[in-house]
Each structure stands twice: as structure tokens, then as C-alpha cells.
Amino acid sequence: MEYRISKLIYKSISKTIIKEEEVVLDDWLSHAKNRKLYEKIIDSDYIQNKISSYNKIDGDRVYRKIESQIIEASKPRYIKFLKYAAVFIGMMSLTYFYQQTWLNGDENTLQINDEKITLQLDDGSIEILNQDASSEIIDKQGNLLGVQQGNKLVYGDSNIEESLVYNTLIVPNGKTFELVLSDGTKVNLNAGTSLKYPIKFLKEGNRHVFLNGEAYFDVAEDKKHPFIVNANNLNVHVVGTEFNVTAYPEDDTIDVALVEGEVGLYSGKNATYNPINDISILSGYKGAYNKNSKQIATQKVNTGIYTAWMKGELLYRNLPFEKIIPKLERHYNVTIINTNDDLANELFYASFKDESIENVLNYFSEIHKIAYIIQNNQIIIK
Amino acid sequence: MQELNNVLLRLKQGDKEAYRFLFDTFYPRLYMFSLKYVKDHFIAEEVVGDTFLKLWQKRHKVHKIENIKSYLYKMVRNTSYDYLKKTDHNVRLDVKSHDSFTLTNDYIIEEEVHAILIKALESLPPKCRKVFSLSCIEKLKYKEIAEELQISVNTVKSQRARAIELLKIQLKGHLFLQVFLELL
Asked: In this complex, do B28 and A57 lie within 8 Å of one another by their Cβ atoms?
């Protein structure tokens, strides 16, 4: 009963109540005590207080504490099991050692190749950016466009451009890169990502860039020239703020997670932003554009999840394994072939920080009792 | 993750995500609920934490729980009482007395309404949320809202209508509210 009444009270506040329900609620309200409770619950100051209390709640911390207790509780049995397991492991490693020595072991060790970060200039020519060195980016006329140092490329602001001249930065799998555009906007690019941008924004009009993959933008404020990120069919309209855009091909949605400020979201390749009708999101929120339904949904999120990649962390929240695979491939620059259909749709909630691909795979195999082998430099999951 | 029954089934199988989902869904309201009894943030945190720990330990029997919400509220209330008894020997609480029963029910109604409302507010686009909040919670007139937000009265009306429409769609069983409103 109390849940039914709660629902009716919520509906009466939100004006979503229907006549039949109103009758039930009115009947309940006819008791003075209930009326008093109702008045208290719907009081706006009381609600505002509750909202601010909610904002102070740190559930993550409490959950972590519980999690450690859960792990503690399950430890003793684990140790017991390990004692027995040790013998087997000893035998297994002997076999493995034997194989390693007597057979050609090369094909079951993983070779991770080092891919280069490249920059495509306006004329289509490609430059390789060497992360262990610095270089100057110079156009055909000999103008200095920008300077690359290690993992960072910074564009200058001195060139006078009459028309838009684009560069495209391509970050391969296994790498991340930092870019500063001519207006001072900072962009962190995740693995397997490309960004097309003008070497210099024009005096008139919008600052428009094009993203494939994932990037974190810290946009330099300029109210006169809105900054627009185009990712697939979604546009993010900004004047100056910090946010993360995830637009990888395997995901059903394009996610925009806002760390600071406010952005507008609208879809369509050639559409323009309409502040009245288009959706806008505030900091602490995520806007998700669904590629299939073409709808944008917003929800409150912990934005830390969307920016963890910049600290080298991998966080998967309720993600099916088949969606995790391309992300692992990208992060580690490996090839993973999953032959386990049951596993493909299994949802995972996992966090990794600076782990080797082997450790990540071991985690999944422990949780799910899967086996994997390495063959011809590919990881095959059984 | 939409249906509570499915979540409970997965919890029974020891699925950490399902557990985390239940935690995220119910922690804030249970914490506020416990706070009403123990009047101390740290204790309330601990009480609800313990409750969830017990839920994990008893996950194999979770199918026997008739109504997970009631179960959690009851656990939190009893744990809160235990704490009160421990700290204040003068407190003689008859848990079964009629008064404490209605009080508990009142607390539950309050926390449920607020949990649903806050979740619903969070789901609205910011502009809509502001208008809806000023109109339906603060009970301001259209004209006052228009002045406060520097928008036209027509925009106030249309944003308010849009907010209510969005909330109605949610109530139809779409999106998150399902778990929030589900009555087992």
C-alpha cells in the first residue's frame, strides 16, 4: 500500500495523475494524519533540502567498502583451494616450460606492434609524428602551422587564413595523443580516433571540427564563435566548456558526457543549433544519441567514468563482452577473436588500471571460466 | 537491467552488477530513511552498508524475498534500532507497537516519493527541469517563472508541457522508472 500511495503522490506532484487515481489519493488524504504527511512531503523547501542531501551522498565510497568486505569474506576458502591448486600449477608450469623449450614457442606469445601517429595535411600528404622527438608542422608555403613535442601537438595562432584549411590527426590503436588547436582549445584523443580540424579558425562563423572515435575537449571560451564537434550524425554545440565525446563504431549510442558548463546537442549533418528546441545538457550529465532511433536521451552520470581513459584506466559499466572486445583491441592494439557465444552477451562491470592485456584476459577467464590461446599473434577466446 | 525480477535472479547467481544496480538504486533513499532514526550521517551510512552486505551474503535465498523494497526498508529499520538500543540504554523501543509501525510507513512513503521525484527530475533536459521545478514544486505562476528565467510565458507553458509529457512516457514503463515504481 505505501508504495502505491507513494506513486500516487509523485504523480500528483508531477501532474501525471489520472482521474481514477485522484479518487484513490483523495480518499487517502481524507484522513487528517495523511494530509499532514502529504503537505510535508510536497513542501518545496523540504524537497530542495532533500535534493541537496542527495547530492552529498557518496554511494561509491560506501559501495567500495562493502566490496572490500565481500572480498575479505571470500578469501579464506580461496587460500585453501590455492594450496591444492599449487601442486597442479607446478605440474602445469613444468609442461609449459617443456613446451616452451622444445617446441617453437614464438607463435603463442603476443607481439604488440607499435603503430605511428600520423597527420594528414590539407593536400593529402601524410606526416608521421614520432613520439620520442619533436617536429615542426609546416605547410607547402613554408608557414609554420604548429609544433609537435612528444605526445602533444600545438597549433599557432599567427597565420592569417582566408579560407578553411584542414588537417586530420589520426591516433592509432594502443596510443593516446594531445592536441591544442589554434584558438587554444585542448583536445585529448583516445586510441583509434581521428579528428579533422581547421589549422586556423576564421574570423567569422563557427569553429567546426569532425571526430571519429573518442576525445575529451576543453574548449576555449568564445561566445561569438560557437565550437561545434561533429561526430557521426551528432553535433555538440559549445561556447566554452569541458566534455567527453565517445563515438566508436561498435557502440549503439554516441555519448557526450559533460564535466563542466553546458552544451547543446542536435543531430543531422547539415543542421544548425536551435537553442529553443534542441536538447542541452549541464555538467554531470550525459547526452546519448541513439544511432538507430536517432533520439537523444539525457541522464545524470558520474563523469569520471567517461574521462578515466585519460588516466589510462579502462572502465566497463554493464557492457556486453562483444562490445568490450573492440575497446580492448583498440587500447592494447591486439586482435581478439571470440568463439564463445555465451560470453558475447554477458554483461560486465569491470575496472582496470594500467594492466597488461594478459592480466585483463585472466580477469575475464577467472570470472567466467573461459580459456584463451594466443595463435598467430591473435587472442582466441574459447 | 530493466526488470527487478531479472535483477534479483541475477543477484542470486552472484552477479556483482545486479548487486551494484540494486545498491545504486536503493542506497540514497535507504540512507535518508536510516538517518531519520539514527540522526547521524556516519551511522546511517554504516547501517545501510551492513544491510547491503547482508543482502549479498543471503543472495542465495533472495528468491524467497517477497518484496525486495520492503525487505530492505525493514532491514534498515531494524539495524537502526539495534544501533539506538546499543548507544542509549534509556531507549525502550517497542518495534511492534502501532505508533512505530505508522511512523515507519510514513517515512517510507516520504522517501519513496522523493526518490522517484529526484530521479524523474534528473531525467529531464535542463531547461524543462527548471520550468517544471518552478511550476510543479515551487508552485510559481507562469508569469513569475517567465520573469525569473527571462523567457516568454509561452515558452514556460511549452517547456512545462514537454516535461510532463516526458514524465508520462516514463510512467508508461519506459526507461528507468520501471524499477523505481515496480510493485512486486
From this structure: yes
| CA A95 from centroid of its chain's CA atoms | 42
Cα dihedral angle (B77, B111, A9, B23), rounded to 10 degrees? -100
Residues recorded for chain A:
382
Return d(Cα A189, Cα A309) in angstroms, integer.
10
pLDDT digits (tens, 9 = 90+) for A135-177: 778 777 777 787 787 788 888 776 677 789 999 999 999 999 9
Short-list B113, B99, B180, B119, CA closest to A37? B113
Distance CA A302, CA A315 (A): 12
Q: What is the DSSP letter of A182?
A: T
Tell me the backbone φ, ψ of residue B84, rounded to 5 degrees.
Answer: -60, -40
Beta bridge pairs of residue A4: none
Rounded Cα distance between A15 and A7, Å, is 12
Listing DSSP states for A108-142 in one string gives: GS-----PPEEEE-TTS-EEEEPTTSEEEEE-TT-
pTM above 0.70, yes or no: no
Q: Which three cell numbers stand for residue A249?
A: 563504431
The answer to whether B166 and B124 have CB atoms below 8 angstroms apart is yes
Is the minimum CB–CB distance between A84 and chain B shorter than 8 Å?
no
Nearest to B136 among A14, A285, A298 (CB): A14
A285 closest CA partner among A236, A222, A224, A252: A236
What single string gives the DSSP state of each residue in A22-59? HHHHHHHHTSHHHHHHHHHHH-HHHHHHHHHHHHH--H
Per-residue pLDDT tens for A41-64? 999 999 999 999 999 999 999 999
Candidates B73, B137, B175, B183: best to mutate against A (most CBs of A within 10 A) is: B137
